[in-house]
């Protein structure tokens, strides 16, 4: 997808023109992956733009940075305001939001500590990650030959740039095999997540999803869907799953800020079918929440 340019990017405390948001080629993060980031969405609502769970996302951003010994130099509240400022400056009714903190230019070597920390926030228009058609008809996925990184290698609790090299391998493999997405297993063979999404299955009316202890990113869309499912009286169990649990599922769906709530049509050629009733009800409730159409979830919205 070609990246649509907007007018401004927030960079180290000030708005700069899109084309001027540059870094040196010897920036530490370019060589060693020393960065953390977030993916957030702002939705158009009847009462103007609203960012979904903005404070929660920026808290996770701050946690990721602290776990990598990165001092951001901005409080969560200041970063939240910077997001608002950037959306307003670009006059966007809806957008994807990418905060990124990275080790900058000045020192070289594996040890990142002496390299300065830079922080940027970029926004741009971006439709659903796997395509609007996927939200309706679902996607075909395959179990990847690549394993999820180990929890004592690159911790999944840190949303780091380095982690997504692994996702990139799985995504390339999936696409080359004709799948829209790949599903990673962890080192013990349990189902983990997609390359950029959490995963849920439905069987006999019960919703299951892998636990955080199996090496998944603790997704905020995942958490939102669990809360919504509970409000609709669907039991949700966090439990380890194996690939045959996917083959035998009545329904499967994936969640993520970029992908939103997308049904899975098949796994490794095993046909699950069109989006099922549970998936469709959760998807409908999720979109009502993010678009400001359900007052129950108003607290999740940061209105500009």
CATH architectural arrangement of the largest domain = Alpha-Beta Barrel
- Helix-strand topology string: EEHEEEHHEEHEHEEEEHEHEEEHE
Rg? 19 Å
> What is the tally of beta strands?
17
What coarse outline follows from CA principal-axis ratios? globular
N- and C-termini, Cα separation? 28 Å
Mean pLDDT: 96
Largest sheet: 9 strands, mixed
Low-confidence stretches: none
- At the fold tier of CATH, the topology name of the largest domain is D-amino Acid Aminotransferase, Chain A, domain 2
**β content, as a range?**
25-35%
Class by alpha and beta content: alpha+beta
Write down the domain tally.
2
> Quick one: CATH superfamily of the largest domain?
D-amino Acid Aminotransferase, subunit A, domain 2
CATH C-level label of the largest domain: Alpha Beta
Proportion of residues in helical segments: 25-40%
* Alpha plus pi helix count: 8
